[in-house]
Design brief:
Blueprint: E1 9-10, E2 20-21, H1 28-40, E3 42-43, E4 46-47, E5 51-56, E6 61-66, E7 86-92, H2 103-109, E8 110-111, E9 117-118, E10 123-129, E11 136-143, E12 147-150, E13 153-156, H3 157-172, E14 179-186, E15 195-202, H4 205-208, H5 211-222
Antiparallel strand pairs: 1-2, 2-5, 3-4, 5-11, 6-7, 7-10, 8-9, 10-11, 12-13, 14-15
Protein name: AMP-dependent synthetase/ligase domain-containing protein
Length: 230
């Protein structure tokens, strides 16, 4: 590691591959520090790392991290606070005018009634205020399918998964080889909020021997170990 980082350019076909990028106006050390901040990021006491993908291109491409990209849902196109994960949206001269011969898909992807935001990127990100110049630096976390929405807040499935694995290992003395955890979101009680559902596989004799204890105590005890609200 020689404290040299790549020049990132981030985008999709619909955005001419130019939604944002790491600003070359920053010094090499400042860009290194931006990458480090993403790797070190913690939210509500839990690790929430992100990969630094830069900023929108000034006067050309504007970006925002929002709570929701579904019309009618609470938080639609509402910007999230610093450090909180949300959906990446984009507007600007880099954006296509629409899909050829498909006005319905175009209308779904670009909300001309609310500022012309392109909502079809499908990326989950967060932003941090730059230590160098105070601008918003954007960090990529995962794809949209990896985000659980609950109570107007967004939670990464990977984050909840790791928190539950850590809880199982600490609470019941189990190793990685003893358990397998999968977290999904199902809309059971609301059309807008996800219910957090977890499946746990006990993989060896040590874990199976504790099945009754885990069954009796896991649900109530684990709520204190995962991201608040999830």
């Amino acid at each position: 590691y020689a404290r040299k980082v790549p020049a990132v350019r981030f985008g999709s076909t619909e955005t001419c591959l130019q939604v944002m990028g790491t600003p070359l106006t920053l010094s090499q050390d400042a860009r290194v520090r931006a990458f480090e901040r993403g790797a070190e990021h913690v939210m509500q006491g839990n690790p929430q790392p992100g990969y630094y993908i830069g900023r929108g291109h000034k006067n050309f491409s504007e970006v925002r991290i929002v709570k929701s990209i579904s019309k009618g849902e609470p938080g639609y196109l509402e910007e999230v606070p610093e450090g909180v994960s949300g959906f990446l949206v984009n507007r600007g001269q880099n954006l296509m005018s629409g899909y050829v011969n498909n006005p319905q898909a175009s209308a779904k992807a670009i909300d001309h009634e609310n500022g012309g935001w392109y909502t079809n990127l499908g990326d989950v990100c967060f932003w941090l205020k730059s230590e160098t110049d105070g601008e918003q630096d954007v960090y990529w976390m995962s794809r949209e399918s990896s985000l659980l929405i609950r109570g107007g807040a967004n939670y990464a499935y990977d984050q909840i998964n790791e928190e539950l694995r850590g809880f199982l290992k600490e609470q019941y003395g189990l190793g990685d080889e003893s358990i397998s955890v999968a977290v999904i979101g199902l809309r059971i009680n609301s059309e807008h909020d996800d219910d957090c559902c977890a499946t746990i596989e006990l993989k060896d004799a040590k874990a199976i021997a504790q099945i009754r204890d885990i069954s009796d105590t896991f649900l109530s005890a684990s709520k204190k170990a995962v991201s608040k609200g999830a």
